[in-house]
Amino acid sequence: MNIIPLVGGAVFAAVGAYIIYDNQRFNKNATKAKGRILRYDEYFSKSTNNYKSKMFRPIFELTIKGKRYEIKSKTSFHSKVIPVGHNADLLYQQGDEENARLAKGNGYGLGLLFIVLSIPAFYFGVFR
Question: The pTM is what?
Fold first, then answer.
């Protein structure tokens, strides 16, 4: 039994499970609303092999009961998934409107990716 891959696999599986849990918890109590994409924050993300890729983080507005919120998404995309000026489905929790999220996020996919990446680590930790 090799302990390092086993610990790495456990960490990846735990992170993936938490991402899925957090996304489910948020969506369960969230209220759906329409918002508008104002602009995109563009930046370069550098991978471990020094490859740079351009990322886009949407900034959207949400108006609830006459109060306007301008929110920078916590999720980044490789392209401008929703054109500037167009409406988007948003999810927010009442009393915490500043942390609204795009309904078209990648929470479940990211969580599953972490869990899938943990499988080879568990294999090498147990059988190698």
Answer: 0.71
